[in-house]
Amino acid sequence: MVRIAVDRKEGVINSTGSLSVDTGKYTGRSPDDRFIVYDDKTHDTIDWGKINHQFPSGKFEKLLEKMKNFVDNKELFVLDGFVGSDPENRLAIRVINDHVWQNLFARNLFIRPTNEELESHEPEFTIMCINDFEAIPEIDGTRTDIFILIDLTRKIVLIGGTEYAGEMKKSMFGVMNFLLPDRGIFPMHCSANIGDKGDTVLFFGLSGTGKTTLSADPNRKLIGDDEHGWSDNGTFNFEGGCYAKCINLSQEAEPEIWNAIKPGAVLENVVLNDNVPDYDDNSLTENTRVAYPLDYIPGAVIPSVGGHPRVIVFLTADALGVLPPVSRLTKEGAMYHFMSGYTSKLAGTERGIKEPKSVFSECFGAPFMPRPASVYAELLGKKINQHNTVVYLVNTGWSGGPYGVGKRIKIKYSRAMITAALSGALDVVKYRHDDLFNLDIPTEIDGVDSEILDPKNTWVDKDSYDLSAKKLAQMFVENFKKFENVSSDVIDAGPKSPQ
């Protein structure tokens, strides 16, 4: 496939032996061009709005026919595979591409069948990703000339006009997030690893919270880094590979990703200097990526399944510097913070942001969740009850003041807190209750300076801390008002409106 890609001038082989490609105009997802077909099956099950946009069924049918005509007599590349490593709960898929490198990407990211499985493979869902086909918005009903259309009734995903391969991966994640709740399976935007004793832990968190860093533990094995399901059988990865960020990648800091960039891997939008990847040159985009199979990671669990997690970690990066570094959540508190999905975008990460910007992304992955947040939160609560799972909220953000005044909490402290959670040490320590945020906070943890466990202690100006804490608590309260039909137990488990 690499040789064909080079022959077709779709990419070049770089010094690592991996395939380098340039995705052109689009170097990231296009969420405003993603639509779900509106019909009898979806009209009252999808959380329609700013994230899940409606698309008419008739327009989809016409666009599908146009795409079929466009590819007639053209060379196409097809992958038959699966989403989901649990044989009982996987989805059989077929991926059709007009660019061979995109099919290689799909081969790396989805689960590859055995020869025996291939003989009896019947796709339940088809992804038709045709980069060279562009829509005509005024005729086809799309927003622009590119589109990502998900038809949950016909069981087809149509992607056109964009070469950003991540659209295929995330489209199928959205499909799984729609299908699995009806089977009582909890779909999750999280990473997962497992210890020598079979103890599974899940890490939820938005960009910049440390999800990848903290789930990469030399003493534990990786189940997966991004998308999982939690069934009656345990935890299972949706994917057969990883789609890792390459920005400022170094061999010292992330050796596993560095060493996975080898023949068979696909590098996206990484600048080459004399055919050598330059991970510090982000002139094309800061969203440089590499796609590789899971078995490129030493010690990865294959098939990528684990048990029922005893511990779940919610990661947040609070740039206001007022959330405690670690706190234990009740079941209802876990449902509240899961639905809230709080973190901070930091100054400098986006043009125009002059100060930290607090953001809330439901279920720690709102762009990929087609159903209302409460559906997923109820599944979380049910699983916590069934398996006595303990959930911790870990703040990897600031201490001693907000961004620009305080300092980022040391990663060695965050690691020590997670180690204590996994070992059971946090089950036996003393806790104090924070009334404003409604959190139970440990008073001591081995390897952690006890002073930082109470964020107010680290602020010089205590009045400023109180003002900032009240501000964040009120933001939580205001954000949660958008959710309908949520039990009072869950609402009462969140931060309180300041008096």
Describe this structure in words.
It is a single chain. This protein is of the alpha+beta class and 499 residues long. Among the domains are: 2-8 and 25-184, Phosphoenolpyruvate Carboxykinase, domain 1; 311-492, Phosphoenolpyruvate Carboxykinase, domain 3 (Alpha-Beta Complex), CATH 3.90.228.20. Helices cover 25% and strands 25% of the residues. Helix 9 (331-340) packs antiparallel against helix 10. The longest helix has 19 residues, at 462-480. The radius of gyration is 23 Å and the shape is globular.
Structure characteristics:
single chain, 499 residues, alpha+beta, Phosphoenolpyruvate Carboxykinase, domain 1, Phosphoenolpyruvate Carboxykinase, domain 3, 9-stranded mixed sheet, 7-stranded mixed sheet, 13 helices, globular
Q: What topology emerges from the helices and strands here?
A:
Layout: H1 2-7, E1 12-13, E2 19-21, E3 34-38, E4 53-56, H2 57-71, E5 77-83, E6 91-97, H3 100-109, H4 115-119, E7 125-130, H5 137-140, E8 147-151, E9 156-160, H6 166-179, E10 186-194, E11 200-205, H7 211-215, E12 221-224, E13 227-231, E14 234-237, E15 241-245, H8 255-260, E16 266-268, E17 272-273, E18 276-277, E19 289-293, E20 305-306, E21 311-316, E22 326-329, H9 331-340, E23 342-345, E24 357-360, H10 373-387, E25 390-395, E26 398-399, E27 407-408, H11 411-423, E28 431-434, E29 439-442, H12 462-480, H13 488-492
Parallel strand pairs: 2-16, 3-4, 3-8, 6-7, 7-9, 11-21, 21-25
Antiparallel strand pairs: 1-2, 5-6, 8-9, 10-11, 10-12, 10-13, 13-14, 14-20, 15-19, 16-19, 17-18, 22-25, 23-24, 26-27, 28-29
